[in-house]
Amino acid sequence: MGAMAALFGGDRSDAISSKNEKLTSPTDSKAITPTNPGNFSSIRTTPICDSPRYFNKEEADALKELAKEKTDGAKQAKRAYKAMGQIEEADATVHKAHRGYQKKVASGELKKKRADVGLATHLQGLAPGYARLGMRLEKAETDANTRIEAIKAKLLGGGK
User: Fold this and answer.
1) Cα(31)–Cα(11) distance, integer angstroms
2) 3-class DSSP state for residue 69?
3) Which of 8, 26, 34, 141 would bridge with 15, disulfide CB 3.0–4.6 Å?
């Protein structure tokens, strides 16, 4: 199993294309993207008057009142869309800052793991020295036991 497969799972090209699909998919299914341009609907309060006509007083008064409502509504819609745009920009700023933070976490994690591997490598390099120390201790113990046995033999043998 290759390193890419171990890290990302599966065949290398499949893993990469799967990652690309995840990275390039929108943050929301309704987000505007080149592959999802949204709808091109519009708003129309009154039907189009396609030929000249006369209006009576009631129609004119109703249209005048509706025009006032829609003008105020348009001002409020403009304010709301401006605020929604500011929120979207703030969201994007937070998103970007978070990704920057994640990059630093990932880089920091790599530095930490490199330090761990460096220590482990250093410790493995010390293993032969520790093995030699162990052998020296075993030899010292064997030598001491030999001398002790020699002393015991002299003492028990009558000091010859």
Assistant:
1) 31
2) helix
3) 8
